[in-house]
Fold these 4 entries.
Entry 1:
Amino acid sequence: MTATDTFIYRFVPVENSKRTLLVLHGTGGNEDDLLPVGRMLDPESALLSPRGKVLENGAPRFFRRLREGVFDEEDVIRRANELADFVAGAVKENGLNASQIVAIGYSNGANIASAMMLLRPEILRGAVLLRGQVPLVPEKVPDLAGKSVFLSSGKFDPIVDAENAGQLAEMLKKAGADVTHKLLPSGHELTRVDIDDAREWLSRLA
Ligand code: MLT
């Protein structure tokens, strides 16, 4: 069994692509959900999209939570490492550029992406975190110099309060990441502005 056998996933190769977007769905989503978003954000990137393995009343997620907004930290750590190993395996199997993996995560997918950035920074060049919040406080501050993060939050988000999103931005900045944080006049749902801003940000990411 190889590392990529551990997840159900979609891989969409693109000939001569320089970058791979690691596409991570929200609670109740699956590996197909955000492929169109990934494609809109960058038509030239390969797409790697796993399905979260934790089931909450049948709804796939990337880690366990005790209730909304309260995460099982031990599980966050375990699952972030498992996902990092999966990505490293997919990079090897498909001959991808390991230094150009950029996560695109929505909600629970954004939270596992930032957990991976904090715990296994070697896996990611950067991350687009759509409606992300603090996934955990790592025991030791990682060195995120050279990493870039785009965080897009909703001012009226009933699931992620703006203060928590601000704390995530600060945590990543303090660790050395180059962070762009936008606060939009919206709720938890994605808007056209999220997509346009993220696409613009990605187009400038070398
Ligand atoms: C989470 O559990 O990761 C966040 O509350 C977002 C969600 O999936 O609802």
Entry 2:
Amino acid sequence: MTRGLTKEGMLFVISGPSGSGKDTVIDKVRALDPSIGTSVSATTRPIRKGEKEGINYYYKSIEEFDALIEAGDVLEWDVFQGNKYGTLKSELDSQLQQGKFIMLAITVPGALKIKELFPKESVLIFNLPPSLDTLKSRILNRGRETTAEADARFRAAIENEIPKAVLFDYILVNDNLDETVDSLMSIIKAESSRFSRNETILKDLHLVD
Ligand code: 5GP
């Protein structure tokens, strides 16, 4: 069991450069603890081979995305490499009300916005690659983007993303996947065991009036 005592819902928000492996880490943690939910974002980025509507993203036109913002359905959104990405209110609200833990992989500004909206529920975790060389080769070798796009993602990582790690609650260095997953599970357990998230515990155990 990954969770500590709290019965409240929590948001574990992971940011980090493209190629730091955050989606893989989240998939592994969720495979080990299927009670942890996730949030499917909306995006204007074109669907990639192997991706599925409603599983990886809700794929929207620019007009559809803007209409969602206008309707107040988007909690936070950001532009990354020319495409819009946003967290949908509908994805978080019901899961939080049910007391679920949710993992989100979003950009740094998105993570900071979630912290502003949910200061009590959210924990921000920055996922670093073991070195810049590793990051560069991971981005280039996965072959998902053109070389120019991969270069832009690498530049975004060193110029905009990694310097913001100082604003996060935790840092992971994703060298060995199993160890990174283990660290993340420990963060989840420790954060959900904080006294501030379990203030009624003494009463619940009938230890105080
Ligand atoms: P990709 O195109 O590789 O799927 O995602 C590009 C970046 O957008 C990644 O850093 C990813 O974590 C981020 N992203 C995905 N969904 C959201 C979202 O809903 N909000 C924000 N702010 N970023 C997102």
Entry 3:
Amino acid sequence: MASKKALVLLSGGQDSTICLGWALERFDSVETIAFDYGQRHHIELEARLEVLKRIGAIKPEWSRRLSGDHSLVLTELGRISKTSLTREAEIVISESGLPSTFVPGRNLIFLTYAAAVAYRRGIATLVGGMCETDYSGYPDCRNDTLDSLERTLSLGMDQTFEIQTPLMFIDKAATWKLAQELGGDALVALIIEHTHTCYIGDRTKRNSWGYGCGECPACELRAKGFDQWQADVN
Ligand code: ZN
């Protein structure tokens, strides 16, 4: 029987790092992929290298299963989107109800590139940290969108692809809990010390839940989830 392989979209943030732990528990061979699209801060991309360097130390089988990393440069995506992630602009909520950090179609593009890499690598499962319960309501993170894309990729490449999104229906407190269940205190510590989620790119402030400005929407969400998780366990 062929070994079970997965390709994880690893940005270097909290959610994708937990997805990597989730995949390392379940698959015999786990590869990772990142996209450089001219993010305003390369901090996330540096964070993901730290995660990759350290996550194998949590469990010997995780170390054995980690099977290579891919990095694609998609700067055109940054150039056409003109959002707060790529320009020095304030993060605001637009009339459509979406934050200005929204890059139209970003996850569709990422997953399509990921599928192309997976095809060549003989991998059928893509894993991503997309989440419907996220405050932002990104339409390309919705389960319906990803179900549809899964079908499109499978038809368009004539190979059955599966898109796994372990965080789709859980909130941030449950995400921290999942990290604890997957990799214990060591994975929680790795997330706090080495992942990056802050939109402002602040790594000077060390909070109980990790580094970040503490005020941007991403920090607020992360902090609130952490506090709630702590309150639940204590
Ligand atoms: Zn922040």
Entry 4:
Amino acid sequence: MALVMASDPTSEPAIRIENLTKRYAPPPGATGAEAEGKLALGGVSFDVPEGSIFGLLGPNGAGKSTLINILAGLVNKTSGTAEIWGFDIDQQRRNASRAIGIVPQEIVFDPFFTPFEVLENQGGFYGVPKALRRSEELLEAVRLADKRDAYARTLSGGMKRRLLVAKAMVHSPPILVLDEPTAGVDVELRRQLWELVSELNRDGVTVVLTTHYLEEAEELCDRIAIINHGALIANKPTQELIEMARDKVVRIELEADMAELPKEEAFHRCELLSPRTLEVTYDRDAMSAGQVLAMVQAHGHTIVDVTTREADLEDVFVQLTGTGA
Ligand code: ADP
Ligand code: MG
């Protein structure tokens, strides 16, 4: 299945984002801090390497959709630049749009079109000549060939998502962007979407997906950027990000309630899960669990039980953002 325009083998990034800023207009009549408008992106820069599955990870409200919608031409940036496949989104909007297919976060369809018609209409929108349209092939690729002539409104949520992926690929863009493709979908459908995305990527499509699921980013993406409150706080190959999780976590059950956390430079994090349950995160290269316990005891606490575990991507995320996912 050849879904993509031929790409040249130079190492130009598929997407280049530099110092991208977005401040939304304030609501009418806003006063105080609100009158400034919401700063959704505060100067974000990163490249998406060609051929990668790139994960843009961040909690709700981080600015992911704002960034995607700027690339899609749906939101006007305040400042900064973005290039898609080498085309500036301001100077060369048409070419930039032709190089990217976007699956939006919200599913919107005219309920009275069939999947085949949805794709044909989209092909027409992009000016793809009838002879060159690949609606059948795309329906096949997203496993909707048997729904070719069903009304879109009769499709399940999962089928609609897959149809949106096909719709985004109608003009054979080398880059596919999916904004939270698996938010609120069941495990089975998530699997299907992951498979579809991997397949497209194997065929040469550069994929960008936003998600607030760490597990998804970890499983699917070869590179992960993390944004929080409109700022980029990490951008690394997935493997490296996971290796940052060199920390270990020790959970300590105490004999008596702990009134004050033991302050130790060597502890990366120290947290009471209950008055008698202390969790300490530490660098396993720098110290041992035994040393952690000794330090806690030196603060005058009696330990009754201990469990340890390795840190995972979730812990890295918490470490970087200071929040839960
Ligand atoms: P994410 O997709 O990561 O959840 P968004 O990009 O949707 O984040 O939102 C980033 C911030 O910008 C949030 O605080 C959100 O409330 C705000 N925001 C998003 N869209 C608008 C808008 N049209 N007008 C004003 N504020 C907005
Ligand atoms: Mg969003």
